[in-house]
Design goal:
mainly alpha; Cytochrome Bc1 Complex, Chain D, domain 2; 3 domains; 40% helix; globular
Length: 387
């Protein structure tokens, strides 16, 4: 009741002031102040938008190979106000049927927008079928397909699928539109982002995709070293001997790690079968396409911030980096669908890493942690209370 009373007072005041305003500029200022007062009731948004559209990326991110991986479409370029709306939507539990789950419930910023549960919990307590993959550097995945099985052909498609899922959030898109339309703040945010107060599923999709694409991680210890050398294969002065050894192994033909986790984003360029199972219990991409050549293939996630994204793999079977490294060292299972990078003749490549090499490889992976990204306010919840 107090909140409603405050808004009425602001609106009455703005009407009175408009009657006294002598110029259009004054009227615009009054409307802006009224809008900000309404937003301030529930949101902690800066008067001047955070910078999402013009990120000061290091030169290494303008490498031609990485630029070719950029999946941002021409019809949905990231803009500050679009991403701001996306941020509010991302953290709003109103996007679920019973107001208990937001996108952020399964994608935690402190965990590089992943979930530390093996399977995420939906709006009625049900569990998802797969682990929540980190959203960091989603912008740099060439084919633009999303989810572990790549069933979404674009990020714009992906961001609204969990909202409609009967386990995750449980809303139809019609219900979503009606629900958000009843909230005054969204009329303001949609008008600022898209020039229209009408809440549409299309603009929900565009705004959420803009926010997710703005999640670029580029301020790790590795990035500092790369900026000094411009060559990931040369020793970094800011690395320990073990970290440099691990980096050498990562980029070497012995491990072929960099063949799948490519570019400075350390993300895959296509789905691959990494030998988790000889007999498949999850068909992966093959279950979507119906193509036997795709069986057991899964999207290759970014290794950025891998220190905080456990558990690992699509089914969360590995809880430690040591287990992941040992899988590629000695645990890859052979099958007709195994990726060629993991083959040796008709069998499986074994890395033959020493214990010291395994420690070094882990030490290198830890240099990909970007503490700034994990705590940056512009990616955090804008809500003043636990909405």
């Amino acid at each position: 009741m107090k909140t409603l009373f405050k808004i009425i007072i602001v609106l009455l005041a703005s009407t009175f002031l408009y009657s006294c305003a002598s110029t259009e500029e004054e009227y615009v200022d009054i409307i802006a102040a009224t809008d900000q007062a309404i937003l301030d009731e529930t949101l902690n948004l800066p008067v001047n938008d955070f910078n999402y559209e013009d990120i000061n990326l290091p030169n290494t991110f303008f490498d031609n190979d990485l630029m070719r991986e950029d999946n941002e479409p021409n019809n949905n370029r990231t803009r500050n106000r679009g991403a701001t709306l996306g941020r509010v939507l991302f953290y709003d539990k109103a996007l679920s049927q019973n107001n208990t789950i937001s996108c952020a419930s399964c994608y935690d910023q402190a965990k590089s927008f992943s979930d530390d549960r093996k399977f995420s919990v939906g709006f009625e307590g049900g569990l998802t079928a797969r682990n929540s993959m980190s959203l960091a550097n989603s912008k740099f995945y060439r084919n633009g397909n999303f989810f572990w099985d790549e069933r979404a052909e674009t990020l714009e498609e992906q961001v609204v699928i969990p909202i409609q899922d009967h386990i995750e959030m449980g809303l139809t898109l019609s219900e979503l539109e009606a629900k958000l339309s009843s909230r005054r703040k969204y009329k303001i945010l949609f008008r600022r982002a898209f020039g229209d107060t009408i809440v549409t599923r299309e603009n929900v999709s565009l705004a959420l995709a803009q926010f997710v694409r703005s999640m670029v991680s580029y301020q790790s210890k590795f990035d500092d070293g790369l900026a000094q050398t411009n060559d990931p294969r040369r020793p970094f002065a800011n690395f320990t001997n073990s970290e440099n050894r691990g980096k050498q192994l990562f980029f070497s033909p012995q491990t072929n790690c960099a063949q799948c986790h490519t570019t400075a984003a350390f993300i895959g360029d296509q789905a691959r079968n990494n030998g988790l199972d000889a007999v498949l219990t999850d068909l992966g991409v093959g279950g979507v396409t119906g193509n036997n050549n795709d069986l057991g293939e899964f999207k290759v996630p970014s290794l950025r911030n891998i220190e905080v994204t456990a558990p690992f793999m699509h089914d969360g079977r590995f809880t430690t980096l040591e287990q992941v490294i040992e899988h590629y060292n000695s645990g890859v299972r052979n099958s007709q669908h195994l990726d060629n990078r993991l083959r040796q003749g008709n069998g499986v490549r074994r890395l033959n890493l020493s214990n010291q090499d395994k420690v070094a490889l882990k030490d290198f992976l830890l240099t990909l942690t970007d503490r700034t990204f994990l705590t940056d306010e512009k990616f955090s919840s804008p809500f003043k209370t636990n909405n």
